[in-house]
Amino acid sequence: KELLRASSLTSVMRWQGHILKNSTGSAFTFGLSREVSRINTFLSHNWSTPRRKKFLGLAHHFNISVAQCGGFLTMALIAVLTAHGCAPTIQQKISDTEGEEEGHGILGRILVYPVFMILILFWRDLEALLGIRGADVFLDKTCIHQVDDSVKQRGIQKLPAFLNNSKYMLALYTDSSYLTKMWTVYEVAAFL
After folding, report:
1. What percent of the chain shows pLDDT beyond 90?
2. Contact 172/52 with Cβ under 8 angstroms?
3. Closest CA relative to residue 21, chosen from 66, 67, 55
4. CA separation, residue 41 to residues 38, 86, 102, 120 (Å)
């Protein structure tokens, strides 16, 4: 039980998932995890997959709801501002009547997509700035000691405990190589 560790989702996803760049661990990366009694999500991935693909999978899974809400709230605020005449509009002719024009809001077209993209890609960086830890997740590089070989070996042997104490498992299946690696197949089989 003392080996059961998790990192915050915020620390894993910060800086566009920089920690996912390579498998090289250190005392610093191990220090990003802490002892826990339960893990929210076990992150199963393949180190041969590029960091960018893994990060985008994590961003889609964990940040999509926040991005959708942010986009919707931005759109709603712009609609209210436009309806009250506080936002710029483009005047367009109404086709059925001569000389009459109707105003169409433009801020929604300009702002909603960028707000959505900023939130889906940078929400965890914003959380870090606000001091929000995020859910506890298992990432092998941070939760299994990579420097002390005896602790590393015990951590690897306790992998089933990490899986059994995880509420969810997220398989970052980005290409067919995921199922060709012994560890990822083992993780999926052990979780089931």
Report:
1. 57
2. no
3. 55
4. 9, 44, 51, 19
